[in-house]
Prior knowledge:
Blueprint (H helix, E strand, L loop, with lengths): L2 H11 L5 H13 L3 H12 L7 H8 L1 H32 L8 H9 L1 H41 L11 H9 L3 H4 L9 H25 L16 H14 L6 H7 L5 H30 L16 H40 L16 E3 L5 E3 L8 H21 L3 H35 L7 H33 L14 E3 L2 E3 L2
Antiparallel strand pairs: 1-2, 3-4
Amino acid sequence: MSGELHYCHSVNREQSAPGFMKLRQIFQIYTRGTISSSVFNLLTTSVGAGTLSLPYAFSQGGLVFSSVVFFLVLLISIIVGLMLYSSKSYCQELYPAMDVAGYEDIAVAAFGTVGRIVVLLILVVFLVLCLVAYMIYTRDQLDLVVQYVVVKTGNIPDCSVFTNCAVLVTLAFIPLFPFTLLRDLTPMQFTSALSFLGVTFTAVAMTIRAVQLRGSPAFKPQPIQLYPTSVIGAITCVSYSSLCFLCHFNILPLQKELYHPTRARMNVVVVVSLVTAYLLYSTVIFSGYFTFYNNIKEDILTNYDFDDLIITAARVAIFFTLLFCYPVLLHPTRSSLNRLVMTIKGLLDTPTSSEETPLLPGIPVIQGSHGYQHLAPLHQKVPSLVWVCETWMIFGSTFLAASYVPNVGYVWNFVGSIGGTVLLYIFPSAAFLRLRYKRHIARRKPQRRYSSICKDFVAIAILIVGLCLLVVENYSSVIDIINAGHDPSSLCSQLACVTNSSVFTA
Length: 506
């Protein structure tokens, strides 16, 4: 629907509304679907809690190596974003009736039902691991904030069940649990802006502390590590860097909302969003690195003293950001799980494998061009009881994992190896090559130009890099677990309390 038609429909519908509501509606109309609003939406998708681990990844790779890797990942992320838009164009050229809304639809067009199942499975695993990481970050911030309040007030409580960190995290999430049951996330729209503002405030707080420290007479510069001292450090740097730019699954949905979504306008949205994220990340990275050098923990905020006022304010901002973002992240996790189950169920219910049999009986099928049948979006409503049980299952499993995992680094290693490699490198490039091959076959007189060969070469290079990283990063993650490669001191078990005339701290 065009912006003008949408405007007329909205104004007619709101003629009897109060003046304030009219102004609010008109403001939403003129800001929705613009390049600036699309840039902000894509930027908030990219910027999140993973920013807190970037200084650690930078210290593992060294100043020179990490800077080069970080910039190369930015370039690859931009290329992949443009590649996804091209893949959508190929899908629409091959199957004009197909509504391409995201990764899932491109997977169906490129690889069929198996592609949809693989993509959904990877998304479920990736999102569950992200939920665990968010829970661990929330736990760590709560620990330090509570210690700050206890010490400043001088009222150290007696040790009890309420001074257990896991119990306090549970109490913090209980008021948010009803939001995890929402089927419509409209009431949670503010979380995107909250996340961006929280990370931006943290970057400003870290910059202030870095400037104050370097201006202090007691400041003593430490040796700067230029290159990684181990293969594991280099892999960690690449894995974390890849993860922080992962916002590509929202590019196609944003393209549907953008007014006049030409290729040039989408290119501007992708490039500006990722470059802005790069600059914000760089602020956090260099502020943290030149404050603590090579002694950086996986969560940079745990490096600062718990009684630092401005950093405590940043911890509070990150705590509430993570708290409210958890229900938003749980929603696509549960949705992907339901779609995965329905897809597998439909596949198992297939009576025959003849060419005339729909791919997934019982699920709407659209007839595309060239005799290809692809899946319509799955919108079957999940029963309320199943919805609640799934929510409890996801919440409980992520809470238990966060309670026993001593350091967020263990989780981020797998998140980076799965999300950063499969969703950023492997799938977009593989789908792009597959769709280009189908398009090449479908044309009666295919034209092979130099620019097309270059596109294929770049996609193949990204695919090879992704496959190599997938093997190496998962191997590194397993080795880290076996060798206890991360500091376990951040595990929050018992907060500051008094027992038998002794003071215990977390």
